[in-house]
Amino acid sequence: MGREGNGPIILEMLTIAIAPLDVGSAKYRPKEEVDKVRTEHDPIEQVRGRLLNKGLRSEDSLKKIDAEVAPSINEAAEFAT
Questions:
Q1: Mean pLDDT computed over 32-37
Q2: Which of 38, 45, 55, 57 would bridge 51 by S-S if both were Cys, CB 3.0 to 4.6 A apart?
Q3: Is residue 79 a part of any domain in this protein?
Q4: pTM of this prediction?
């Protein structure tokens, strides 16, 4: 149903923890590993690329969405720290 655009879809995104859960812990992941995951396996960037490649969204429309959600993301991040 979702593939035809007629309803909700579920996205499963596999991620890794790139930082320790507590501030006092030693370095959690090597910088090279984090950089590789961010450049090759970032689920947000993968979905972004698919939307662009399939012509479902333009770069401008995705930038507009980014700008719209940035305040909420920043607020949540600030609350979490």
A1: 83
A2: 57
A3: yes
A4: 0.58
